[in-house]
Design a protein that fits this description.
Length: 361
């Protein structure tokens, strides 16, 4: 039996095509994947992301347990601020990625991926039971929803609902605000490469908020367009572009590793820093026509040197592009490689990330 978000009925009523995603019945598309991508880039899109894990940590050890399990400098996060981070194992492998929000002196919210929620919950409980007893853990995934409003018109719509909120919230800030008669958390975060907000209301209030945003011009979008949008923005997907067999340096996420602390992964990551890495995740653009897909081989000098982790067509750039791991010597921008597309070698070129950057207004 698949889990359903508080917006399941809204998705059915709006004609969403539902699929199994990490054990949740989620919309893959509404109006069409490419149309939804274009709308988010030019206007305003609306995503149900209630399937993602929402775990609250409260108490004197809340910062310490997060500092132990993640790569972030958690004590440095100020109240009402957030940080993207990686949750690693003792070998430095990436269990998951997520965002830490600091809501009060001893209160944090951790957003994790739906597919890794159980692993993250188990890691938190194990760490609490072994060394961080002064923390209370609460998994509120099924009682609090999460809606992402993304696109150039997001500020106008949010200001209509909560006057002045767009000016009050800078990127990676969070605040409790009243919208449509209910108190909700609003964060200026997202996974599309566009400006926008992620709103967290009580589950029973999600449909009213969803339809209120639709009435104000937001187009319902599915996970298919979200995947293209994040790929264009050079944002990694756990389970495809990184996993427990990859460390943050190989994944190109060095800037999210605070190395001046002791953590479950710090010893292993220090060893990686001392010895260096042999492979690295890169972005590439297809030169010849061909669609790169997850699992396709990457070749250089007639030898298989890596594998595509994410790829597809970018409507924003009108190009085929992808991500994949290659040896360090093949990771420099401008390097020519080949992608094996159903037995045919198609030329591609390593490029810098992100592929797409939104226009500043």
């Amino acid at each position: 039996m698949l889990s359903r978000t508080p917006l399941y009925k809204a998705h059915v009523d709006l004609g969403g095509r539902l699929v199994d995603f990490a054990g949740w019945e989620m919309p893959i598309q509404f109006a069409g994947i490419l149309a939804e991508v274009r709308t988010v880039r030019s206007k305003l899109g609306l995503f149900d992301v209630s399937h993602m894990g929402r775990i609250w940590l409260t108490g004197a050890d809340a910062a310490l347990i997060l500092n132990w399990l993640t790569t972030a400098d958690v004590p440095s996060i100020r109240i009402s601020r957030a940080k993207y981070t990686l949750i690693c194992n003792d070998k430095g492998g990436i269990i998951d990625d997520g965002i830490i929000y600091r809501l009060a002196e001893e209160k944090y919210l951790l957003i994790c991926n739906a597919s890794n929620r159980v692993k993250v919950w188990e890691a938190l409980n194990m760490a609490r039971d072994s060394q961080f007893s002064a923390v209370e853990l609460d998994d509120s995934t099924t009682t609090i929803g999460m809606i992402a409003l993304q696109g150039p018109f997001a500020n106008d719509v949010m200001n209509d609902l909560a006057p002045g909120i767009a000016e009050a919230l800078r990127p990676f800030q969070i605040r409790e605000v009243e919208i449509l008669g209910q108190s909700v958390l609003i964060a200026r975060t997202g996974y599309t490469g566009e400006d926008g907000f992620e709103i967290m209301p009580q589950s029973e209030s999600c449909p009213d908020l969803w339809y209120g945003l639709v009435e104000r011009g937001a187009l319902p979008c599915g996970l298919g367009s979200r995947d293209i949008l994040r790929l264009e923005a050079g944002l990694l997907l756990h389970g495809s572009d990184m996993d427990e067999g990859v460390n943050p340096f190989e994944a190109g996420l060095d800037r999210f590793v605070f190395s001046e602390k002791e953590s479950i992964s710090s010893a292993s990551l220090q060893t990686v820093l001392q010895h260096g890495i042999r492979k690295k995740l890169v972005g590439f653009l297809m030169i010849d026509r061909g669609v790169p897909r997850h699992g396709f081989d990457i070749l250089k000098d007639d030898a298989i040197v890596g594998v595509v982790t994410s790829g597809g067509y970018s409507p924003s750039l009108d190009s085929y592009l992808g991500l994949g791991y290659v040896p360090i010597e093949a990771a420099s921008p401008g390097t020519l490689i080949y992608i094996s597309v159903r037995g045919r070698l198609v030329e591609a070129q390593v490029t810098t990330l992100p592929f797409y950057t939104r226009r500043k207004t």
